[in-house]
């Protein structure tokens, strides 16, 4: 099946280089082999040019490490790369993992490439890498957008005000893009290519734990046992979710104790699974009704792609002054001097040492397992706003804690959800102390689910981490 043309952008429209040794694919956002349109396009081009395919990945650590990433994030990432490297080898595709920025490895290897294929991300750092590659790589460059259902600028060319403004645009289009990505046959296997090219600086991706120990990383937040990275793990989680938890998702998704979450967010963040594959599986699921499917696709497509739209169109999406809308900053400023019921330091928040027992439970789940249910994430963030000395400091704290502990931190969804706490993609509500007309969330919201049942589940998960 052909890759939809709207997913493909030619960044450097020159003819493929003659006499080249390979076609090159920089696998940086879509870290998987199945359902990867960028990879399949690279295979098509390699077959057409009668060349082997070389896939590369630039691994940052030390002073050049990915901003705010720590050993928890890198462990999950390396597990995914090990899974991808093994799958590439089975298909006759070479893989090179090198200590370098993505731009550095792509530019270097493009010198002997007929053409270069990129995938696409929307964060500022990713846009900077791709811009550097576009300026300096001396070969044809093709970018393929494979980690959203509807290509971002096909859905909308402007910053959307809210989910309600983007939703009809996505629903009108998404059927056209919910198509399977069939694996292409590799006509020219790359066996021995790395050796022939004398590329001796590659890292061994096969042992993630061993490689993790060699990297210069922030180790204050360590790996978790609850989730293991890679497409194989992601597909297993999805299968179990569809078989045991999806029926009733519409009613149970806001109940953390109900076990109705799919836990796909870390895998989507690292590109270990395609949102298209998930959406197709949701549509085909048995024993679920239309409410379940609609609720899940709302989160997977509308909310997630609204976040992509936000970070793409917002310079400074991690900055309070630019990420939070004017009306919300104005009302929060008007109430900045309101007395706070409690004030906590960031260290006290991180350690879960507040007067709010269930907030502390949620913080424990986040700190020790790398995950927190969405229903608790919003309550968690609203309380940080309430317990911080200013809205600006609350925004910075929330983002730092989010990015430090969550496996899916530093994601477009993370930046957008943090800004939502402060009024993004929302409207003014009844005026209150501290919050002004920004939406408030009280302890009464905990009565909507079995908070004690949630605590028992968190205790079991954290004991498993310690065991």
TrEMBL record:
Statement: the UniProt record of this protein carries the keyword DNA repair: yes
Keywords: DNA damage, DNA repair, DNA-binding, FAD, Flavoprotein, Lyase
Keyword DNA damage listed: yes
Domain Photolyase/cryptochrome alpha/beta per the UniProt entry, residue ranges: 21-152
EC number(s) per entry: 4.1.99.3
Top-level EC class as recorded in UniProt: lyase
GO biological process: photoreactive repair
Cofactor: FAD; (6R)-5,10-methylene-5,6,7,8-tetrahydrofolate
GO MF terms, alphabetically ordered: deoxyribodipyrimidine photo-lyase activity; DNA binding
Recorded catalytic activity of this chain's protein: cyclobutadipyrimidine (in DNA) = 2 pyrimidine residues (in DNA)
Gene3D superfamilies recorded: 1.25.40.80, DNA Cyclobutane Dipyrimidine Photolyase, subunit A, domain 3, HUPs
PANTHER family: DEOXYRIBODIPYRIMIDINE PHOTO-LYASE, DEOXYRIBODIPYRIMIDINE PHOTOLYASE
Family classification: Belongs to the DNA photolyase class-2 family.
Protein name: Deoxyribodipyrimidine photo-lyase
Organism from which the protein derives: Methylorubrum extorquens DSM 13060
